[in-house]
Each structure stands twice: as C-alpha cells, then as structure tokens.
C-alpha cells in the first residue's frame, strides 16, 4: 500500500495562500467599515445642517411686522447685518396652555464658526441654542420688494417693513458653498402716523 501525505512545501504553500486570502479579506472589511463611518458622519452632518436651515426658514416664514422690543424707534420688524439678524415671529407653540404671548423675539448670529440662535417671549426669559458648529457664513443679503439685494436691513421703506426674501450662503461641514434663498411673508403694515 502506497500512503502518501503532504510534503512540508505543500503545507507551507497552503498556509501562505490562506494567509493572503485572510489579509485581502481583512483589508476589504476595513475599507467597508471606513466607508460606513464616513457615510454615517456625512449623514449626521446633513441632518444637523437640515435642522439648522429648517429652524432658520421657519423663523423667517413666521416673521411678523411687529416692532422689535430692543429697537428704541419701535419702527423695525427686522434688523439685519452681515452676520446677525433679529426679528419678531409668531407661531410659538403653547402645548401646556400657559399664559404667554404667541409672539417671540428671535436672533440668529454666526460667530467663531458657530451658528447661534437666541429667542425670548414676552415673559423676558431668554433661551439660546447652538444650531451648527464649524460653519462659516459667507453672505447674508436681504432682498427688497423691487428684487434688489442689500447687505443690511432695514434698507429704507416704511416702518415695520420686512424684506421680500433673504439669501444666505455658507460653508458648512461637508457642504461648502451652500446657497439658499428664503421667501418671507412680505406683509406690510400701513403707516398710521
């Protein structure tokens, strides 16, 4: 009877082939896991950006032609500069039916890589929140009734005048060069002077 086993060379070649297959499989798995981490990070950045823009858009859509409480002239419904804007908005939810106004003062600021939002109701209690980090505002323009953009608001017009639209351009994490134009209600209050 002729019994034949494996030679040492055959065993070494088999081990080397299995090691190469194992190494290739490990590298493939590592690439898949790295891609998954990048996708999750990108998804989180997108969610944070969408949340910040949704809050900003909701504040603008619910802007009211009401005088800002911190404006001594009591003639401005929105005051905006290149990295900050303040306005009065309605639609403040009151789920507990507490006594309070349905109008609130809102401020958006972009400073030191952060997008900050502050708000306050008639009770005077102020709240602030960080909407987004790592963001740089590159442009904030206000568009009047004639469609003319300006870098600051108020840009003329009557008292309690709101811009027709607002254009925002920013560099957000994972989304550089993002531009959005948001239409405002554009209501005007007749002058009663």
Give the helices and strands, then pairings.
Layout: H1 8-61, E1 78-80, E2 84-89, E3 104-111, E4 114-120, E5 126-133, E6 136-143, E7 149-150, E8 165-172, E9 175-183
Antiparallel strand pairs: 1-2, 2-3, 3-4, 4-5, 6-7, 6-8, 8-9
Which features does this protein show?
9 strands; 193 residues; four-stranded antiparallel β-sheet; five-stranded antiparallel β-sheet; disordered C terminus; 1 helix; alpha+beta
Structural overview:
This protein is an alpha+beta fold. It has one helix and nine strands; from the N terminus they run H-E-E-E-E-E-E-E-E-E. Strands 1-2-3-4-5 form a five-stranded antiparallel sheet, with helices on one face. Strands 7-6-8-9 form a four-stranded antiparallel sheet, covered by helices on one side. The longest helix is centred in the first third of the chain and has 54 residues, at 8-61.
Rough shape? elongated
Task: Please give the radius of gyration in angstroms.
Answer: 29 Å
Strand content: 25-35%
Average pLDDT over all residues: 85
Question: Mind describing the biggest β-sheet?
Answer: 5 strands, antiparallel
Transmembrane segments: 6-29
InterPro entries: N_methyl_site, Pilin-like, T2SS_protein-GspJ, T2SS_protein_J
Keywords: Cell inner membrane, Cell membrane, Coiled coil, Membrane, Methylation, Transmembrane, Transmembrane helix
Membrane topology: Single-pass membrane protein
């Amino acid at each position: 009877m002729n019994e034949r086993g494996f030679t040492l060379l055959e065993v070494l070649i088999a081990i080397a082939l299995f090691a190469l297959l194992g190494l290739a499989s490990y590298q493939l798995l590592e690439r898949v896991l790295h891609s998954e981490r990048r996708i999750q990070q990108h998804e989180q950045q997108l969610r944070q950006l969408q949340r910040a823009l949704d809050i900003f858009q909701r504040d603008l859509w619910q802007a009211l032609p009401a005088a800002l409480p911190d404006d001594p002239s009591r003639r401005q419904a929105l005051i905006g500069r290149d990295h900050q804007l303040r306005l009065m908005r309605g639609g403040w939810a009151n789920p507990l039916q507490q006594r309070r106004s349905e109008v609130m003062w809102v401020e958006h600021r972009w400073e030191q890589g952060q997008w900050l939002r502050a708000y306050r109701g008639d009770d005077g209690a102020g709240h602030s929140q960080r909407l987004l980090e790592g963001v740089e505002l590159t442009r904030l323009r206000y568009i009047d009734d004639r469609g003319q953009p300006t870098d600051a608001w108020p840009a003329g017009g009557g008292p309690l005048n709101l811009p027709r639209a607002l254009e925002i351009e920013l560099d957000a994490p994972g989304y550089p060069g993002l531009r959005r134009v948001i239409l405002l209600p554009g209501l005007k209050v007749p002058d009663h002077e």
